[in-house]
Amino acid sequence: MSADPFVTHRNLLFTVAYEMLGSAADAEDVLQESWLRWSSVDRSQVRDPRAYLVRIVTRQSLNHLRTLSRRREDYVGEWLPEPLLTSPDVSADVELAESVSMAMLTVLETLGPAERAVFVLREVFDVPYDEIADAVDKSPSAVRQIAHRAKAHVAARRPRVHVEPSEQERVVHRLMVAFNTGDVQGLMDVLAPDVVSVGDGGGKVRGAARRPIVGAEKLVSYLMGGIAKWDVHPVATLTWINGAPGLRIEVDGQLAAAMSVTVEDGRITRIYSVANPDKLAGFDAEATLTR
After folding, report:
1. 37-86: pLDDT as tens digits
2. For the chain, first and last CA: distance in Å?
């Protein structure tokens, strides 16, 4: 007996939902709802199960996006996507790895729900325009226009250069060593002078910055001052987060934050640090992403 198409395509469907929502927990909710809808469908009437399932997941994700946008308006501090623990294999698909990066997901947050759905389905998963039109309930010509606008919007805001995973790993390793040894000069050397650090504690983490910190000197001062003030001893280890090398930060053996970075010219230009415990609850389970 062949596997149910939902099971066969589950990793793909999770990836679609996650890229649309920026939340693994909400993506799992979407998959549960989509499974219930799929289980009541007359399969004999479905010519292309993969396309049909993507359509269901897209529609459920759009419903969630509208609810999430209201929830995020009341969020304390900066909102960042929920980080995913991934295997290094994800980086082999350059386009997929870029699409799930923290940098790209934060750009996708600036799109409206329909624009985000169209961009993700077209640019990441190469879904034909007519199938996207069916999923978002718009005409193919309208979808083409939305896709054009969304692509231009993202192009103006996405990271400017592609960095090989091996180079990013070297830079992140330098950050890890400097962080773990309290090497102030080492931190200053690996951070770009105009680095921007965005933290997400959700109002639940003592000492977490609620606004972006701009500049290497300010950031290093904030990090070193916080460690001294709160008398904590964080330890960073290199791990793969959202398809790229990042840092897992632990305090007293407990996960405290997941840190992703953007690298340009051998230095870190942006840091995304998620410390909200609600967003770290499922971090230790490796996510399988595919397209």
Report:
1. 999 998 889 999 999 999 999 999 999 998 887 788 889 999 999 999 99
2. 25
CB 140 within 8 A of CB 146: no
Provide the CB-side half-sphere exposure for 283 (13 A, CA): 25
- In this predicted structure, the answer to whether residue 177 has a pLDDT above a threshold of 80 is yes
Rounded-to-integer distance, Cα 98 and Cα 107, Å: 12
Structure tokens that stand for 65 in this block: 């996006």
- pLDDT of 147 > 90? The answer is yes
Q: Tens of pLDDT along 108-126?
A: 999 999 999 999 999 999 9
Beta carbons within 10 angstroms of residue 104's beta carbon: 21
**Contact between residue 21 and residue 27 where contact means Cβ atoms under 8 Å apart:** yes
Please tell me the number of Cα atoms within 13 Å of 103 on its side-chain side.
Answer: 26
Tokens of 64: 């969630």
Question: Which residues are within 8 A (CB) of 206 and not within 5 positions of it... i.e. 6 or more apart?
Answer: 230
* Predicted local confidence at residue 59, as pLDDT: 96
Q: Which residue, 137, 154, 140, is CA-closest to 58?
A: 137
Mean pLDDT to the nearest integer, 80-105: 95
